[in-house]
Amino acid sequence: MIVRIMGEGQWDLADSHFAELNKLDDELLEEVEGGDEAGFRHTLGALLDSVRRLGTPLPADALEPSELILPAPDASLEQVRDMLSDDGLIPG
Questions:
Q1: Residue 57: band (very low, low, confident or very high) from pLDDT cuts 50, 70, 90
Q2: What angle do CA 3, 25, 83 make, to 5 degrees?
Q3: Considering the chain, what is the average pLDDT of its residues?
C-alpha cells in the first residue's frame, strides 16, 4: 500500500504493518476527540515515525496514487480532526 505523509513524500508499506498503525490511529482518534493536545502530538509523531521506519520511501519524482494520506508532522489538532473519519485516519 502506498502511504503519503503530506509535505514529505510517499512510502510503500506492507499490509502486515497495518495492525501496528491501526493501534496508533485508534489512540490518535481518542486524543483528537478528547482534545488532548500533548497526547495527540506524541501519537501523531509515533504514527508518522512508524510509517517512515516500516515503509520503503519512494523516489521524490515518483507519482504513485496514494491509498492512504496522513497529515504533516506539524498539522494541528483541528486540521487532523477535519481529516478523520469514524475509523480514524486509517480505514478498517
A1: very high
A2: 70
A3: 91
Share of the chain above pLDDT 70, in %: 97
Element (H, E) at 81: helix 77-83
Question: What residues are paired with 3 via a beta bridge?
Answer: 11, 68
73-76 long-range Cβ contacts below 8 angstroms, 24+ apart? 73/5, 73/7, 73/8, 73/44, 73/45, 73/48, 75/6, 75/44
State the average pLDDT over residues 22-42. Answer: 93
DSSP-assigned states of every residue in 10-66: EEE--GGGHHHHHHHHHHHHHHHHHT-HHHHHHHHHHHHHHHHHHSEEPPTT--PPP
Q: What type of residue is 87?
A: D
